[in-house]
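Encode chain A's predicted structure.
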Amino acid sequence: MVIVGRLVAKFNSYYDKRPLLTTMVTNAILGGVADTVAQTITAYRTRTAMLPLVNQRSLISDGIELDDVNEKPARFSPDLHPQSSGPQPFDFERLTRFMSYGFIMTPLQFKWFGLLTRLFPLTATSKTIPALQRVAMDQLVFAPFGLCCFFTFMTVAEGGGKKHVVKKFQDIYIPTLRANYVLWPAVQILNFRVMPLKFQIPFVSTIGIAWTAYLSLSNQAEDEAM
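Encoded structure for chain A:
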């Protein structure tokens, strides 16, 4: 808690001087944390998927025969290529893409949250209704748009063209939007109802570590399928 308190104090100090830049840097750092989590999860899943193959080789080395070992190795680990030698090294280019996206998108989020604050002000006698109005606008307008920005930016940054962007939208945009509606309405109610404006984007980005990790995994899975 002491560390958290110091971080909040530092954030307040920098925010008072340069609110937009401070929020942009904070968002970029949290985006990097999220992708690091996603890459760690991917490495763990890869190692776990390799265990049956390792056990298989151990049994073969002990002289125990396994039926169809050479013909159907994928049945032991359907998500792992038979020639895989282990988890891929940490992808710093991918990390940079996620940090860049968080940095670039912050000004738009900054303006959007400010607009919602002006359109639906919280008052001493009415806080819940304006907060719900903000959530409705955010989820109906900004959430679909934000996902469009994310998948387009990531695909182009990875070197993909128009057809890759279209395919990614066809394959994972709607499922991801559905997942968004499971998590974010509840998060945003708390955010708009309780958090001061300057903490709203960092709060979303902190909760969004898990969400961005999910997006990172979804984006990677789709790239591997292409």
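The CA atoms of residues 69 and 75 lie 9 Å apart.
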